[in-house]
Amino acid sequence: MRLSSIVFLVALLVGGPAFADAGLRDRAKELFQPIPSAPPAIPGETATPEKLALGKMLYFEPRLSETHDISCADCHNLSMGGVDGGALSGGHNAQLAGREVLTVLNAIFNKAQYWDGRAADLSDQVVNSVMANPKAMLKTRGGPMPINPTEHAAAKQRAVELFKGIPGYVAAFKLAFPEQSDPVAYANIGRAIALFEATLITPDAPFDRWLKGDDQALSDAQKDGLKLFIDKGCVTCHNGVNVGGGMYARFGVVKQPSAEFLPPDDWGRYAVTKAIADKYAFKVPSLRNVELTAPYFHTGATFDLKKAVALMGESQLGIELGADETDKIVAFLDSLTGRQPEVVLPILPPRTGPPAL
Amino acid sequence: MRLSSIVFLVALLVGGPAFADAGLRDRAKELFQPIPSAPPAIPGETATPEKLALGKMLYFEPRLSETHDISCADCHNLSMGGVDGGALSGGHNAQLAGREVLTVLNAIFNKAQYWDGRAADLSDQVVNSVMANPKAMLKTRGGPMPINPTEHAAAKQRAVELFKGIPGYVAAFKLAFPEQSDPVAYANIGRAIALFEATLITPDAPFDRWLKGDDQALSDAQKDGLKLFIDKGCVTCHNGVNVGGGMYARFGVVKQPSAEFLPPDDWGRYAVTKAIADKYAFKVPSLRNVELTAPYFHTGATFDLKKAVALMGESQLGIELGADETDKIVAFLDSLTGRQPEVVLPILPPRTGPPAL
User: Fold this and answer.
1) Across the strands, what pairs with B249?
2) How far, in Å, CA of A88 to CA of B290, rounded?
3) CATH superfamily placement of domain B25-35+202-334
4) Rounded CA gap, B282 and A42, in Å?
5) What architecture is the A49-197 domain classified under in CATH?
6) pLDDT tens per residue across span B4-61
7) What ipTM goes with this model?
8) Cα separation of B132 and B141, whole Å?
9) Would you call A98 helix, strand, or coil by DSSP?
10) Where does the record place a coiled coil (chains A, B) (predicted)?
11) Nearest-by-Cβ selection for A68 from B78, B85, B294
12) Which residue of A has its CA nearest to B289?
């Protein structure tokens, strides 16, 4: 037995996986960062408790929709990984489907919002999504809003008037924006909700604990999966703090997926940039909590994460992953499930007296 | 000055309202009971933490509906007094309206469930409401379920199969019903949700604190309102722990309200008993948290509690209340708002792999 083999065996017996993990961890730390334990700041905003309280109320407020029955929390369900489990956006209600709902969890770390990146930040996303009737929006493949500018302005005004007619909201807006003389204003809705959403992060995933030095946080299969995830090239697009969310990529760059996964009439990022290079490009989704966010792809075409991984290998990397490789990569992806936000339901102020609308 | 007047003045100065409250409190205690501080037991059930955890998951579970997008919490919104603010059942979506949603808060204390009392208890109500597609049910004025028996059985089976396909649910049902060999069973869904719902009580309302001896818990206007509530006869129907919820009464017994409030095609309790005496009879709703549960009546025809009180006076008691009287009664009703349950959102297990449905 050669000396190097003896050293290796001793290392396995004494240092265990620590020795073996060091190299992998060094490579991983160049590609990924853990979710921070505290929510990041939004530039130009101060997250006061009053703003966060208002933002949480509005996040759970069904009366923010024109039909008074859809809140942010309905599609970005905080019991379900920040998505809707495919109810409206995929699954057997696919006739309603535009694009699959993207999770609100860790969305603050994404480069831009929506599959086509048409909202620069969370506040933009909120204002966009609220003003479009979400159910109608779902029918448009996330494209241009189905509301004309006149109606758009009127809908904004109706939302503001509604809140002005609810004393509990008038008080909450005043507390959140004490420096403003007329705080029940449309822009403040987006600001408050965005600040609340920035708190919806999921630290302490096994992968993050491992990144920080806890060798036991990942199983051997998960470490093998991570190696494959790096070596096969998945990290080309899925990297950074969100293991994705940082760039756009054409879906089907090597091999075009079937229409179920890539419907020909949804040109993705092209709708925003009108650049031909962006045809069929989509934001690379974050893989944080991917275990919880089925169904997958912008179409929500499958609930099967193994199938999703295999398809990515074929369409983006031109490789056929073996079943064992897919299993290991999925094992690694499961290590991206972090501590879910503990959310106490807000109590929403009642509308009383004659209707404001 | 006569002696009795002097005694009265001294009492006002020394004992203050305590003296004045004693008589009113004695009368009130014969008519009402406070909400207990701990949830009541359900006969024949043991509320283990595991059953309650499962019940809470199922309460927030949109996949329990056939369309996978409506949970109990959508219509019985725990941010909104246990109702939907009129979104589906009244308000400007009235074209969908069947009957106004009744609050789940303190529902455990009602004699029966639904406006027509067709469910004997919470477990029955759950099974009824889940099996009817709630959106379809809303179109039938809460009458016979719009699902035929064959479809009913098939829908039950689909729900059970769905949960059997989600490992997290299989584990949760096993923990909740450890004595059963096949715990993912339809009846257990109703049992678990009913147990969770029984915890949704709102103790410590100002009125309850006053009933227990805290004279300061009610304002003078609220005490005047309580007196009127008793003297004018409201207590004939609105009494007991839930200030209602204990009996059926014909709506319009003295004077028939307009069709907006009492549509001629909804015969109420008659649909259950087929007794002509029950034509247009409805369960007397609980007035607990009534401040939070607008819009009012089985039609959700008004958000204005003063208008609702005035109409009740006319239609049920044949009296015309003065504006001051209505104001005081509403002030009293506002004292029925209790401590809302603090609900931490459950995390629901993901469906993964090929669809079970």
Assistant:
1) B282
2) 33
3) Cytochrome c-like domain (1.10.760.10)
4) 52
5) Orthogonal Bundle (1.10)
6) 555 555 544 544 444 568 899 999 999 999 999 999 999 999 999 999 999 999 999 9
7) 0.86
8) 13
9) coil
10) none
11) B85
12) A350
